[in-house]
Amino acid sequence: MIIRNVRVLGGEPVDIRVADGTITEIGTGLQGAEEIVDGRGAIALPGLVDLHTHLREPGREDAETVLTGTQSAARGGYTAVHAMANTSPVADTAGVVEQVYRLGQEGGYCDVQPVGAVTVGLEGRQLAELGAMADSAARVRVFSDDGHCVDDAVLMRRALEYVKAFDGVVAQHAQEPRLTSGAQMNEGVISGRLGLAGWPAVAEEAIIARDCLLAAHVGSRLHICHVSTAGSVEILRWAKSKGWNVTAEVTPHHLLLTDALVEESPNGSYNPIYKVNPPLRTRADVEALRAALADGTIDVVATDHAPHPVEDKETEWAAAAMGMIGLETALSVVQESMVDTGLLDWAGVAERMSLKPAEIGRLSGHGNPLEVGAPANITLYDPGARTEVDPRAFASKSRNTPYEGMTLPGRIVATFLRGKPTVLEGKLV
Amino acid sequence: MNKHLISAADLSKDDALLILDTAEELAAVSERSIKKLPTLRGRTVVNLFFEDSTRTRISFEAAAKRLSADVINFSAKGSSVSKGESLKDTALTLEAMGADAVVIRHGASGAPHRLANWVRGSVVNAGDGTHEHPTQALLDAFSMRRRLGSLEGRKITIVGDVLHSRVARSNVLLLATLGADVTLVAPPTLLPVSVGTWPCEVSYDLDAVLPKSDVVMMLRVQKERMNAAYFPSEREYSRRYGLDRDRFAKMPDDAIVMHPGPMNRGMEIAADVADSPRSTIVEQVANGVTTRMAVLYLLLGGESAQ
């Protein structure tokens, strides 16, 4: 196959020849009898890699399945996603992670790399069999109780130490539970006015500080999920300045949206479509997160794609589920918040949405620069398009997007997983 | 006037004064032996109460009935709501019944905002979680006006659990709109961290504020706060923030004492103070009916009572 007229990382137009799932030639005016895909000048990026996806299967197939979630991922330009462990049953055994891994392979839309739970049942009491998950067919390297914080300091220390044996990483959901009991939204001016229980920034920052110190003490690799506050950025900057092995992610929604939407939005006040954990923060936090992603203090963008059925969002605020979907809008939101603002170029986007997440997750088959010999995981993106977000057009089974009705830049034109198109002309293949 | 009354912030100064003036006219009706007006005949008012609050519900019920509206009381207990029906489905049911106004009391902040998306009638917030209780603020303002006249420049002190108080939020907003100077007094644990952005002053020292107050409004201390380390003990709270006889004596001679009820006598307010002639606590109940009549009348009826 020859993919014609694409601009690698936004550079000069070239053609890419793909054979047997691998990039075999990059140049201009490539000739051959193979199938031709016309890129029409789209930007070519290495296939995107998500470190933080909720696929909901097994257990909540009403919200998403591995199939619909990976179709959604392909539509968003992803070729690999890390499936979070908070399924039912929890992904805390080799059996569950292998099941999720295989469902991804059977679907064929996007590689699914399961994340293993740190503790049995996400209960924060006893380490799950991390080694068994690491040794399973799913080859788990990322462990997380996401949705819950591993708040017990001793347990966190043990987890950080234990995963060193197989080059694993603990991805912490940083949320001090006592400070956030019943928390509904960012604690600040808006929560005070709206009478909603506050989720203070310090509850995230205190755990990040503690865990950076723990990771340094035991010489382990630590990853921080969905960083949401300016204070967290300061702590991470300090930890990195010490040379500690700490990485961090930010979600697209924390790069674009603020807690003001809870009070006033085109969708009314108290609309739980904006309810998410960690909560939307302030404009100052958004600015700090953007700067941190630009300067590398925050390493990657991860979606925290969290599908929920309509009835779990069409409620009063306190009763609603937390989370928003994001796979199919992630690259557009990153363009809007980081590229169109001049903070990142396309090489920087590839670094933060493909290369670095694959490196943190130890996925050797993903996140490689588009070069001869690399696996042909390729995302074609047209940054010039502008489209109104229509959740009914999503491949995801759920509709809980905060961007409905917003006009966002860019469009995924095509996605190739090891040379096989999963999306062409913006449509699933 | 807006179609709904969900937040005290929905009311402009003119709106608020119109409600208070209308309530004044309607008060005359309440003093007649036949207390009924035909104004809302044929209109349906639903009292949708997800929390037990007999006093607020009967106040709204009396207000609607005195205006000849048909009243449907929909209590969450023993209804389909307790079997798991969603707020939206309840709203659609009420909509199908043709409710002209829905008076909602709900434990979740923002529930009336959500309800307003799903019904065509007017939504009146009768207390939502720890957010607002605008008709309480209106009846408080009405009670103050009856005792003190105009509230412009009046010094009003609100004491207690501001963090969790819907009464405090609505009062701060409405009193600021009406030109009064509000001071909140509470232990710092019971104030929102962002209280500095509110249109009022804040103090931790009740004794310093009392001599300058025209009105002192004591808030109820909820039992569940007492067990959640917001303050060390009931006795210490009462000592530092309770309105006892000694503190009452520090207030100016014509200053009044208010409480939205129900009171914890001996905790935030001493029995002698609650029962003093300068307490408006019983009047507040009567004024509640009148004020809520004015609200329903203006949302559903016309411009003037005459």
TrEMBL record, chain A:
Active site: 304
Cofactor note: Binds 2 Zn(2+) ions per subunit.
EC number: 3.5.2.3
Catalytic activity line of the entry: (S)-dihydroorotate + H2O = N-carbamoyl-L-aspartate + H(+)
Positions bound to Zn(2+) 1: 52, 54, 146, 304
Top-level EC class: hydrolase
InterPro entries recorded: DHOase (IPR004722), DHOase/Allantoinase_Hydrolase (IPR050138), DHOase_cat (IPR024403), Dihydroorotase_CS (IPR002195), Metal-dep_hydrolase_composite (IPR011059), Metal_Hydrolase (IPR032466)
The protein's annotated pathway: Pyrimidine metabolism; UMP biosynthesis via de novo pathway; (S)-dihydroorotate from bicarbonate: step 3/3
Cofactor: Zn(2+)
Keywords: Hydrolase, Metal-binding, Pyrimidine biosynthesis, Zinc
Binding site for substrate: 54-56, 86, 277, 308
Pfam families per record: DHOase (PF12890)
Positions bound to Zn(2+) 2: 146, 173, 226
NCBIfam families, per the entry: PRK09357.1-1, pyrC_multi
Family to which this protein belongs: Belongs to the metallo-dependent hydrolases superfamily. DHOase family. Class I DHOase subfamily.
PANTHER family associated with the record: ALLANTOINASE
Function text: Catalyzes the reversible cyclization of carbamoyl aspartate to dihydroorotate.
Protein name: Dihydroorotase
Source organism phylogeny: Bacteria, Bacillati, Actinomycetota, Actinomycetes, Streptosporangiales
Gene that produces this protein: pyrC
UniProtKB/TrEMBL annotation, chain B:
Keyword Methyltransferase listed: no
Entry-linked Pfam families: OTCace (PF00185), OTCace_N (PF02729)
Binding site for carbamoyl phosphate: 55-56, 105, 133, 136, 261-262
GO CC annotations, alphabetized: cytosol
Pathway: Pyrimidine metabolism; UMP biosynthesis via de novo pathway; (S)-dihydroorotate from bicarbonate: step 2/3
Top class in the EC scheme: transferase
Domain Aspartate/ornithine carbamoyltransferase carbamoyl-P binding stretches: 3-145
Single Gene Ontology BP annotation: 'de novo' pyrimidine nucleobase biosynthetic process
UniProt cross-references to InterPro entries, sorted A to Z: Asp/Orn_carbamoyltranf_P-bd, Asp/Orn_carbamoylTrfase, Asp/Orn_carbamoylTrfase_sf, Asp_carbamoyltransf, Asp_carbamoyltransf_Asp/Orn-bd
Similarity comment text for this entry: Belongs to the aspartate/ornithine carbamoyltransferase superfamily. ATCase family.
Function according to Swiss-Prot or TrEMBL: Catalyzes the condensation of carbamoyl phosphate and aspartate to form carbamoyl aspartate and inorganic phosphate, the committed step in the de novo pyrimidine nucleotide biosynthesis pathway.
UniProt protein name: Aspartate carbamoyltransferase
Protein source organism: Nonomuraea endophytica
